Amino acid sequence: MDSAIALRQPSSISSSKLFQTTKFLNSQLLKFQTSPSSFERLKPKPRCLPINVSRRSSLLRIRLRHGSTDEDGRSPLNHSVKASSNDAHFSAFTEKKELQAPSFAEFITSERVKVAAMLALALALCNADRVVMSVAIVPLSLSHGWTKSFAGIVQSSFLWGYLVSPIAGGTLVDYYGGRIVMAWGVALWSLATFLTPWAAETSLWALLAMRAMVGVAEGVALPCMNNMVARWFPPTERARAVGIAMAGFQFGSAIGLTLSPILMSKSGIFGPFVIFGLSGFLWVLVWLSATSSTPDQNNQISKYELDYIMNKRQTSFLVDNKTKATKVIPPFRRLLSKMPTWSLIVANSMHSWGFFVILSWMPVYFNFVFHVDLRHAAWFSAVPWSVMAVMGYLAGLWSDMLIRGGTSITLTRKIMQSIGFFGPGVALVGLTTAKSPVIASAWLTLAVGLKSFSHSGFLVNLQEIAPQYSGVLHGLSNTAGTFAAIVGTVGAGFFVELVGSFQGFLLLTSLMYFVAAIFYNLFSTGERVNFDEPVSLRHGYYDFSKFSMNRA
């Protein structure tokens, strides 16, 4: 199926050069098209350069047509025209027959949902391996005599590694694809989790290093998830896909917080680390044997589903085996020169601050403020994450419905992000007024549940403004978010020691939610942002002043 793009011919190119190039390109085209019907399509039309790109073939055929005459008689072989199909911003593929949207039963049993389910399991393991230390930190602090501020440093050791890996990991994801990088990431963080008991018995520094290694490996998880969702899901389903994957992320928190005390009581303080680590190795085996990088490489996918994905997916981000054409060194300066990038960085930073403060300190909060024992404190902390998993999927479903109903992508993302930040900001204020653990858990559940709407805001927005750089863009925002999480996690411990109250820190977090929501609404967009300066396509026409003609 061919897509034609009309390109403007600028006045700066002389008719002589244009005619010479015409003769050369037409002579080359005759090698591929020899039938009379092909020559009919080559009849000159003034001032027009169509480019035909076949999706079934990598051949880029350029046909130049002009009505001028040769002025100086130079051979057209002295000039060559260079163009890349990757430099074009294509509109969606058009089909003679529009495929119907799948029913819910077809969607939920499709191969792409199986991929999303595997991503959800990976993210569940990812978060379970994180939060197990949030539970283990209580008995570890008692046995080693750690203060709350030092306990915060121990918990933040995970974030030291998580700080350095997202940018490099995102670049690897853009270059190699999410499937392979995710497999290596899960294998590495599962190994580090499995070895944590040995490290804890060896020395404090070994324990900190092993938790930092978990952070390094887990830094690739969310960029890989975004990459696989962009490859497997059309734009009208991506919020739901992210909702499914992030539901696993939140269930991982609930599983880690509820199972860890039980496993510790049965098999010792380090039992959860061993079990979660072994589960990760099992996941890698299933992931590599049951999934593929792209839909067209999958042997189990139906023809209907493959056609539906390929024809609905944005062709501005053709994710196929040519992913390696992406630049190894991304254009960081241009990425950081756009305000939509900073809106994502601010949103991710606030999201991570709130997430890790709640994740790391809520068991301690219930134990410190309401004097709840460790097992019950973990249960009170786990309930909100289960609600967040369900709310995240419902938010994604609503987001996709808004877009299909005609609401712009930009407005949809701002609605989701506003709920995801203003909601927790208000709920945390309510949490400071709670007088019982039940009421506190209810406010916390509301805060975390509304927070999940941001997954259909900034998290999906990463794929939309720069699909070819979604991995590295996610890495940039994740790095900023991790730095914010370190400050929040460590700062909470020092704040409580100095002030003697969690409530003041919760009010500060609430204020930051409000500020971040306003910033995102002012500067975010759901449209694709042009980060590639060398070649530009505007309104379907090529800027010919940047079209290179070099002597052979």
TrEMBL record:
Membership in a protein family: Belongs to the major facilitator superfamily. Sodium/anion cotransporter (TC 2.A.1.14) family.
Membrane-crossing segments per the record: 115-138, 150-173, 180-199, 205-229, 241-263, 269-290, 342-362, 382-403, 415-434, 472-496, 502-523
Cellular component, GO annotation: chloroplast membrane
InterPro entries attached to this UniProt entry: MFS, MFS_dom, MFS_Na/Anion_cotransporter, MFS_trans_sf, SLC17A9-like
Protein name: Major facilitator superfamily (MFS) profile domain-containing protein
UniProt function note: Inorganic phosphate and probable anion transporter.
Gene Ontology terms for molecular function: phosphate transmembrane transporter activity
Major localization class: plastid
Compartment annotation: Plastid, Chloroplast membrane
UniProt keyword Plastid present: yes
Coiled-coil parts of chain: none
Organism of this sequence: Cannabis sativa (Hemp)
The entry's keywords: Chloroplast, Membrane, Plastid, Transit peptide, Transmembrane, Transmembrane helix
Pfam families in alphabetical order: MFS_1 (PF07690)
Occurrences of domain Major facilitator superfamily (MFS) profile (ranges): 115-528
